[in-house]
Batch of 2 targets.
Target 1
Amino acid sequence: MHVSILLLQNGNLFGLETPRQGLMEANEYLRSKKGAPPFQIDLVGAAPQVNFQEGRFVVRSDKLIRQVPHTDLILIPPVAGNLLEAISLNSEFYPWIRSQYSQGAQVVSFCMGAFLLAGTGLLDGKACVTHWRASEAFRKAFPKVRLLSDKLLTDEDGIYTGGGALSSANLVLYLIEKLVDRETAIYCSKIFQIDVGRNSQSPFILFQGQKNHKDQRVLEIQHYIEENYAHKLSVDDLCEYSCLGKRTVERRFKNATGNTILEYIQRVRIEAAKKSLEMGHKQINEVLYEVGYSDPKAFRTLFKKLTGMTPLRYKENFGKTFYKVPGNKRAKKTL
């Protein structure tokens, strides 16, 4: 199988190496088993070489796109910096990607590489994931794509997309299992020490509120919610605060933020609960009351819905030091 890893302008060097190293390790494992390596891997560029990190690193193309009339798998690494600029700088790849896909090639994007894949038009009407931090910008740039902000990866019609940062490694393992076999994928997961059981970005999402809009009255309501989330809040309270009718408030808020008022209040409260649990000092019942809930069951149900974890599991994962160092008796117990 011929694999083309695109050498992009404004690319992310770590994001380029993650899939390359993963597929190379799969090749080595199959060689050790006296089998043929499944992947022929080339760095394919529109130019002979690309500078990374302001010229600190130079990476050379193995082949140019005009030298690759056919490939089986296209990997689009993440881009960095100004995303719309990156789309423009790499637009030369678009006709080639579309042509290869029409000939049967499968196409994969990692993290912010979804912006380039969406720029080809191949994602229109399909599901997609990218880094959760870029969700709002992605939705505005590509409204025809069904963005799934909380998912780890998608697989639809020969097009794959993966979530942000290190979670790209999970998509690499998924591809190895699907294109080679599960044994090889498990071996690679052990070599790179990757948790193969994770299927969501939800535990890592920081809800910051969608404030990149021009509705000043809605911004005022958002700030009011964020300052008063611990108190009982209703749509009627916010109507009185904003001097607007209920239907008007609900319509304008949804149009501006993408959330209903209730959803926004819930997300603000759960984000506050997450931060409190991360400190590790308080019991879960203390936290839920502090953020405005009185029903423990309802709080736990909503917390798991929005984070993919129970409050207890979240506290265990994020509410202590990440590493227990043998013999380090002076290590702090909480972050």
Target 2
Amino acid sequence: MAVSIADIKKLREMTGAGMSDCKKALETSNGDFEAAVAEIRKKGQAVAAKREAREASEGVVIARTDGKFAAIIALKCETDFVAGNERFVGLANKIMDLVMANKPANLDEVLALPTEDGTVKDSITAQIGVTGEKMEVGAYESINGEVTVAYNHFNNKLSAIVAFNENGKAEVLKDVALQVAAMNPVALDADSVPQSVKDTELAVAIEKTKQEQVAKAVEAALKKAGLNPNLVDSEDHIASNMEKGWLTQEEADKARSIKETVAAEKAANLPEAMVQNIAKGRLNKFFKENCLLEQEFINDAKINVHQYLENAQKGLTVTAFKRINLNQD
């Protein structure tokens, strides 16, 4: 049947679909708007299935708080063009409205929240039919606390939420949310770091310490023998420097012998207590760089975040935080 431009425009306003898709849906449904909307949703399902394997690396991140509850969602798509689309951003905000009203515990609960399309998942599928791009809620985080704050970076790609044990000055709470966004801490404090992570970091620190101590001993022995350590630090360099005439065969052989002998002797006689002390120092540095309360405060490197909060208000501290960043940190 022939459909009018007015009906096509009406369906477009209802669904956001392209003019040609609206025209085809109305023709297929003989002008029945309800059936036409269902037809467009079917198209979205087909496109979603077809693009399932595609990577959705763009999108928007939104954080909000209502006082004691805060949440972040990342609605993802394939291109920055769609990420800036008014309907796409509107869908992200609509999902966040539902999140704040229902306070879901996890991503599955977010996707199951009811909408006029059925669920959030259904609404995303319908929007896929409009844009022709893969879309998904790529991440969802929420926290609870006595008071919470939310920070959204200007590019809509990065957000952070922080919970505190008590209320404080707005600028102080915001400063800590900015710290989370900027410095990407992995834990609240050293006690919050999983033991498996501590064990791994300590093992890495021990191995790195041993390698450094062996390397120092080898370098000292080479210098004592009158050899430049930089000319013999690898077999490729040895071969290259011999070709250039910077090393003789005798010097190359001597360097190889020293490196092998001294390295073996030093590795076998490393003081365990010294290695452990240096490695623990490295682990403490890891905590300082990666634990929120122990990080240097971004606005004053002379103090850490714990000290900043304590100076601002005795007893004020962070109880939880979350961060989502669509860009690579």
